[in-house]
Specification:
Layout: H1 7-20, H2 26-34, E1 43-46, E2 51-53, E3 67-70, H3 73-78, E4 82-83, H4 89-92, H5 96-111, H6 119-126, H7 130-141, H8 145-162, H9 167-173, H10 179-185, H11 192-196, E5 203-211, E6 214-221, E7 224-231, H12 234-244, E8 249-252, H13 257-268, H14 272-277, H15 286-296, E9 304-305, H16 306-312, H17 319-327, E10 340-341, H18 354-365
Parallel strand pairs: 2-4, 5-8, 9-10
Antiparallel strand pairs: 1-2, 1-3, 5-6, 6-7
Helix pairs in contact: 5-7, 5-8, 6-7, 8-9, 15-17, 16-17
């Protein structure tokens, strides 16, 4: 409890918190408190109790003069308020209300993927400021609304091209205004025409090298690393690249040895930052890109289960989809899908062999 003689200090601190959260419309926020608006993403604190709550808290409504508004739980804490035990604002900040808002934003983007959707428009849809939309979406989905829309367009374009559709028609039907826009935004790593032709005419540099985990092969387009696989021999490693890009022109490039060193460094603990900074040319659906980004956020020496990863992505029912995204990862080590295990901790399937997965995890935990 906050002593009664500290209430005036809280009021002053709350005033500071209000100035820090100047973007909040206090009159509109107060109306949401009165209506117990579940979709609101601010917090309110009561100076007479020293407690801060979510707007939909079921507790007795305070007097307006005793209320201060904050844009985050952290700001309310910093001002000297403690979390309400009834609505648990810190745990519910990413709960059902936030999930509903994310779903609404995502649905609007998906319904308008063929045209630009500015943050101001998304803010209008859910009744939030553009800044809050950007922060909420990136925190919940892992990418910005713009990056999410680009990934959706890229997935639509890739699907149309794989089905043998006309390149020009596929570009415009996917929502790109021109072929140059499609090349820049689709993440194909090659022009749409070349992608449709299975990479024919595309130049991919590659090299192979021996490591403690077997032979590695790395392949890179001009845009970045597009393939990193593990194998038992140099020939097997090179064959995996040729199978992935059968119609591309492959050229051995010894200068790419640095990519091998960076990848091994991610496991050894001496290249984690370099690994995160590597330019990657990844092709996948919006969901796969989110999973691969989440994999890169798992610290060395730690693991996650598929279900844990699904929950962290805000998709608790997508465990199987997470597993599929891990299985289709094209860049071993740098996108560390080996750090995902079964719910029991068992080493489940790994694209490059379960025994290799064991070796990688042991190396990262210091056993080897």
């Amino acid at each position: 409890m906050v002593p009664m003689n500290d209430r005036s200090q809280l009021t002053s601190a709350g005033g500071q918190g209000l100035r820090q959260s100047a973007a909040i419309d206090t009159e509109a926020a107060w109306r949401q408190v009165l209506a117990r608006g579940a979709a609101a993403v601010f917090f309110y604190a009561v100076t007479t109790t020293g407690v801060f709550c979510r707007p939909d808290c079921k507790s007795r409504r305070p007097l307006k003069d005793n209320v201060r508004f904050f844009g985050s739980a952290e700001a309310a804490r910093a001002a000297g308020f403690r979390a309400c035990k009834r609505c648990k604002p810190e745990s519910s900040a990413r709960g059902p209300a936030g999930g509903r808002l994310l779903n609404k934003i995502r649905a609007h983007i998906e319904a308008n993927v063929d045209r630009p959707v500015p943050l101001a428009e998304l803010g209008h849809v859910v009744g939030l400021s553009p800044f809050t939309v950007q922060r909420l979406f990136k925190r919940g989905v892992g990418v910005s609304p713009l990056a999410y829309q680009r990934a959706l367009r890229a997935g639509r374009l890739r699907g149309a091209l794989k089905e043998g559709g006309n390149v020009t028609d596929a570009i415009y039907e996917a929502g790109f205004g021109s072929s140059s826009r499609a090349y820049e935004g689709a993440g194909l790593g090659m022009t749409p025409a070349r992608f449709a032709a299975g990479g024919r005419g595309e130049q991919i540099g590659y090299t192979t090298a021996r490591s403690a985990f077997g032979w590695l092969v790395v392949g890179a387009t001009e845009r970045g690393l597009c393939w990193l696989a593990l194998a038992g021999t140099s020939a097997e490693a090179e064959a995996s690249l040729r199978e992935e890009f059968p119609l591309a022109t492959l050229r051995r490039d010894a200068a790419l040895k640095g990519l091998v060193d960076a990848a091994v460094g991610v496991v050894a603990g001496c290249g984690a930052d370099v690994g995160r900074e590597l330019a990657l040319d990844l092709r996948g659906t919006a969901f796969q890109l989110r999973v691969w980004q989440a994999l890169r956020a798992i610290p060395r020496g730690e693991t996650r289960s598929y279900s844990q990863l699904a929950r962290e992505l805000g998709e608790p029912k997508a465990t199987r989809a997470v597993a599929r995204a891990c299985a289709t990862n094209r860049v071993a080590l740098v996108v560390p899908c080996h750090r995902v295990v079964g719910a029991s901790g068992a080493l489940t399937g790994y694209r490059w062999g379960v025994e290799r997965k064991r070796m990688l995890l042991e190396a990262e935990s210091g056993i080897r």
